[in-house]
Write a structure and sequence with these properties.
Blueprint lengths: L7 E2 L4 E6 L2 E6 L1 H7 L2 E5 L6 E2 L4 E7 L3 E5 L4 E6 L2 H4 L3 H4 L8 E5 L11 H9 L1
Antiparallel strand pairs: 1-2, 2-3, 3-9, 4-6, 5-8, 6-7, 8-9
Length: 126
């Protein structure tokens, strides 16, 4: 299982990669593996407000439909258009091509309840 060092992770298995006052968000390798084959991603609307810890997207797999929880509060400024035609990118490239959205933060990134790669590795090995 891959856990890139340049991101932070939520207990709900989302990752966040900081870029200025924005974060790119997706689900982890661990999460996509647990979901199975992803067949549809419901993306949030650009311009929508999201709240830390609340559902802002859904991923449908051959096993189930799962909510994706925002790791931060802010505004959705970009979504991944590739997921409409290729939802399987969440499985094949969860950290690069399978990202879900970019959120402009309404607060400080350092205050978010996110784990380091090492802490997330410990969580997923439990």
């Amino acid at each position: 299982m891959t856990i890139p060092q340049d991101r932070r992770y939520s207990k709900d298995h989302e990752w966040a990669q900081l870029d200025g006052n924005r974060i790119k968000v997706g689900i982890t390798d661990y999460a996509q593996d647990a979901l199975g084959d992803v067949v549809f991603v419901q993306l949030p609307a650009i311009g929508s407000a999201v709240t830390e810890g609340e559902s802002f997207a859904e991923v449908e797999s051959t096993k189930s439909v799962s909510d994706i929880y925002s790791p931060a509060s802010g505004t959705v400024v970009e979504v991944n258009p590739s997921l409409e035609a290729q939802p399987e990118l969440v499985n094949t490239s969860p950290y690069e091509n399978g990202w879900i959205a970019v959120i402009e933060l309404s607060g400080d990134f350092s205050s978010l309840d996110l784990m380091s790669a090492e802490d997330y590795a410990t969580l997923t090995q439990a």
